[in-house]
Amino acid sequence: MHKRRCFFTIVLISSLLSGCWGAREIEHMIYVNSIGIDYVKGKFVFYAQIISFNNIAKQEASGQRNPQTISVGKGEGRTLDEAIFNLYRTAQQRLSWSHIKAIVFSEDALKQDVINQLLDVIDRYYEFRYTVWTFATREPIEDLFNAKPILNISILYSQLNDPEDIYRQSSVVAPLFLYKFIWKWKESGQTVQLPILSTNKVQWTENKKKHPTLIMSGVCFLQNKKRKLCLPRSEIMGLRWLDKDSRRPGITVFHNGEPITTLVMEKIKPSIIPQVEDDKVTFHLKVSTKANMPQLVKAVPEKNLREWAEKSIAEEIMHTYQLGQKTQTDVLQLSDALYRQDPKAWHKLTKNGELPLRPDTISRIDVKLQLFGGNLSKIREH
Fold this sequence. Notes:
single chain; alpha/beta; GMP Synthetase, Chain A, domain 3; 6-stranded mixed beta sheet; 4-stranded mixed beta sheet; globular
């Protein structure tokens, strides 16, 4: 009798447990890897990139890699959610949004209404996360999503899904997480520096055939919830010297048109000091860094080399500022520095949330460079 009671008690308790009745097998779901948003003739165009996971385990186990299959879905609608539901119609299995690694905006989609709709969808849907890499592009999103890394490496290790890896080796265009994008998009005094993702069809071949690869080719600047300016990679070199997270930027030092050396920087410490006087603000910029010298083309005195390198860095910063100043785009985040250090002055001097920029807004740039490395002995003998 006692055993029967125990048995029925266990059965009753078990029936109250929810269990995993609603769970689905992973092979019965399609995991979206990256999404893209375009805006064409008043309609949203939504892209979803799907990849196979066959190569991931093989890459980590050093096994033979097979060519990776990439599928790209496309939906259209008058709202972003309508475009997503338009995509659902042709999906053969349920789409999972919990593993998205990247969001790509077309240049036409960098509008306040479009971005606000995306952020609203992300806020409301529990599967989306905020640790997602965010990009802009000037190319067809479908072309970006179909670009494959060399050697059959998984897309998960490309600049689309892992841009920070190459940034640690060569710091030029800083990658941007979605949560940082949202913070800079909404906060006063901030300028969003959104990386531009493109395909490079020139530099790599595979089996003697051109192999398009991904590259962060520039930056789009969004200010006061508007797209203000997009600059190519060659014109935004000054940004890296004012980014405290810049890991390893490199610079070639020239004198009289001749290359002298290539320097690789470490431990960059920038500071922006606003100076307010008579309803006018100017900024004193300081940069200190250490530089390794992996290559020395021509031996020159250390003092000269240091001065030429410091001058080159200051010129890059000023050149980038001047390009932004022409369109009143705060590419160097000067407004943010004033807002944080003197908010009262910021409210007084800004117009519609933007700080007017003049040719003399930057009053001074001081760069302090310390050289180290094996090649120093050669120039010290000079």
